[in-house]
Specification:
Blueprint (H helix, E strand, L loop, with lengths): L1 E5 L6 E4 L11 H24 L4 E8 L8 H15 L2 H11 L1 E13 L3 E12 L5 H21 L11 E6 L7 H7 L11 H6 L24 H18 L5 E3 L3 H4 L7 H9 L4 E6 L1 H7 L3 H12 L3 H7 L4 H9 L1
Antiparallel strand pairs: 1-2, 1-8, 3-5, 3-6, 4-5, 4-7
Helix pairs in contact: 1-9, 2-4, 11-12
Length: 332
């Protein structure tokens, strides 16, 4: 039995009773559930670090210069290799010692725009032993910018802008990441809105591109597009899926999870745990009816939206509810 589950009044619903592909990159459903689980891990870790160890955080973004003709795979390879080189060797050990860096959580984010093509960048949350001074943050910004520039060039990338290649932000009470966050979340940045750092680090699935920039799942929205633009988006999506296959989206540094008592949980385990939670069955679909709509993306979206809005008449138009099964299930 396929059901649509959710918490009444929450405005969110999901399909239950289906196999999961487990792709954090290419599946909107699995990505949302996995990233939600990873965000919870970061929240647990940052809270313990702040309360037990009296530590602090820096939120740093590493960016590449890019052009529309750049292939996403090349950009991701350069980004990953340059960052790995940045946090290796004696210069890094001395820098990390001065600043008190114990470890980090790294998340890869990808957007696309018609003017500049693929934009792959890293968000890194560094865990510090103490609260850095203004001078220490300024020193970190300068050192990381120069180091990043050197490592990117050595791996064949364009010379990053010393001002914009690295963006260093002090995190206050794990809540404020600064204007950089808001410019990712809305068209006009504002200093008044606050965002949990764990959500910013992990939840690209909830983001919308800034201005004309699109997050990858936006490429799947083909409503109102012409034939040529639909084809372009399909090609971009295939490039994205191919380039991200086998890559890790969110990575903790070695031993940091153990230090912060965050258990190791696989993506599959996160999905299994989500399937076992106790939200409410809101709609039940017979197997024959599911077969009729399972390949109709518009019908699936319409059904979820109707259930989320509790517009049962619209849901019934998409696919009838197995009322008998639903009543039986809710009475058990």
């Amino acid at each position: 039995m396929v059901t649509v589950n959710g918490v009444p009044g929450s405005g969110r619903a999901r399909f239950v009773g289906l196999l999961s592909c487990g792709s954090i990159w290419a599946c909107p459903c699995c990505s949302s559930l996995i990233r939600q689980g990873r965000a919870s891990e970061v929240e647990v870790g940052t809270e313990l670090w702040e309360k037990r160890y009296k530590g602090s955080f820096l939120f740093v973004t590493f960016t590449l210069r890019h052009k529309r003709q750049d292939r996403l795979k090349d950009s991701l390879d350069t980004l990953t290799e340059a960052f790995s080189a940045t946090i290796r060797g004696n210069p890094w050990k001395r820098f990390a010692g001065r600043l008190g860096i114990v470890g980090q959580v790294k998340a890869t984010e990808i957007t696309w725009s018609r003017s500049n093509g693929w934009h792959a960048h890293l968000h890194v949350l560094f865990f510090l032993r103490s609260v850095p001074s203004v001078d220490a943050i300024a020193d970190a910004d300068g050192w990381l910018s120069a180091r990043w520039q050197s490592m990117v060039v050595k791996r064949g990338g364009r010379v990053p802008n010393l001002r914009h290649g690295v963006d260093v932000r002090k995190v206050t009470d794990r809540q404020v990441v600064g204007l950089y966050i808001t410019k990712l979340q809305e068209a006009k940045p504002t200093a008044k809105k606050r965002f949990p750092v764990a959500q910013e680090l992990t939840r690209i699935d909830t983001k919308r591109g800034r201005l004309q920039s699109l997050v990858p799942f936006d490429l799947l929205d083909l409503d109102g597009l012409g034939v040529e633009e639909v084809q372009e988006r399909r090609e971009l999506w295939l490039e994205y899926v191919t380039a991200t296959r086998g890559k890790r989206a969110i990575v903790w540094s070695r031993s940091l999870k153990e230090l912060l008592e965050v258990p190791e949980v696989s993506d599959d385990e996160l999905l299994e745990g989500e399937a076992e939670d106790e939200d409410t069955v809101l709609w039940a679909i017979r197997r024959k009816d599911w077969r009729r709509i399972q390949s109709d993306a518009d019908a699936l979206v319409q059904l979820l939206e109707a259930v989320e809005e509790e517009r049962w008449d619209l849901a019934e138009r998409v696919v009838p509810c197995d009322v008998g099964w639903l009543e039986w299930h809710n009475s058990v």
